[in-house]
Every structure is written in C-alpha cells, then in structure tokens.
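A quick word before the example. In earlier lectures we treated sequence and structure as two separate objects. From today on, think of them as two lines of the same record. Here is N-acetyltransferase written that way.
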Amino acid sequence: MTTVLSPITLVGTHVVLEPLRPGHHDGLVDAVRDGELWKLWYTSVPAPDEMSAEIDRRLSLQDAGSMLPFTTRLRDPATGAAGRIIGMTTYMNIDADLPRVEIGSTWNAASAHGSGTNPDSKLLLLGHAFETLGCPAVEFRTHWLNHQSRDAIARLGAKQDGVLRSHARSADGTLRDTVVFSILANEWPMVQSALQHRIRKPRR
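And the structure line, produced from the sequence above:
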C-alpha cells in the first residue's frame, strides 16, 4: 500500500515546521544571511539571490512526490505561536511504497545553533515518520568532510550504514563522498528519549 505524504504543520517545543510556500521567501533570505551559511563550501545552502529558485525547486519536487519541504519557525514559549523564520528542512528521496524517507536539505540560521531547535525539528520529523507514516527506517546523508553534520547526526542516535564514494558532484565541481546514516523503527523509542532530554537542556 502506498503511503501518501501530504503537507502538514508540526508543532514542537522550540519550533514550528510549516509547509514551505513562496510567501516564506523574505524570511528565509533573512535567516540565511544570519551566519552567511551559503559560504560554507561543504554545504548546499542557497544564497539570498538563489532563494526563490530553491523554493521553486523544492515545491516542484513536492509536486513530483519525492520531497515534502518545510519552513522552520521559532515557537514563542509564552503564546505557542509561530514566530521568526530560521531555516528549512525536508523529507526527501521519498519511497512511498515502503515507506521510507530521508531527512535532509536542512539548514538553520547561525543564531539558532545550539538552542535546541535542531533536535526539536528532528524529534518532530522522526516522530511523524515512524508513528504516523509507519516508516521502518529513516535515512540521513551528508558530505564526508562535513564533520559538524556527521557529529550531529550521530548524536541523534543514527548508525552509519556506509560511505558512497564519488557519489555526487559538489557546486565547485569536485566529487563528493556521501556518508549514509539511518535510524530503524525499533531504535526510535531510545532516540526519542534522548532527543527529549536534549530539548529540555539545550546548548549541548
């Protein structure tokens, strides 16, 4: 049976994940300028003048059924309302028949790093994937040389499956080795508990 992934809003402790839409453009441009994230050579973060095209790309992939993109907003702790836009994330490389998803194409404004927003986003996305969509596994991929990302994925409790050598071509033309991680459904309760602990005690 094919699982249908439809746009959905996910509300956490620190963030709200909203379905991406063109109206998020200006907020996403402000967010990506926070830390000039597009200048990090080992990532694929859109520059301000590329944001409109990146939104269109992600929404086209959503129409094709291979991606479900989100805009990440801070959640006001007092009112619970969605506030400032801080980044983007997605379900990507969707296999609706299994079902299986990869969580990726993620970036957050530099000022949000270490604040608990990233583990909160992952808690929401993993919870929806395992508990609602019924995925037996969720995948993560990153550049072999992106040690910050590799460490962050490992801290989630994901296990490294392997390395795809010369797997893709980076924006500068060089070949990229891709590290593949996954979390299995039977590992989710332990991962969930660890993420909840991190959210209660951010800056770790």
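Notice the following. The chain has five helices and eight strands. We will return to this example when we discuss secondary structure assignment.
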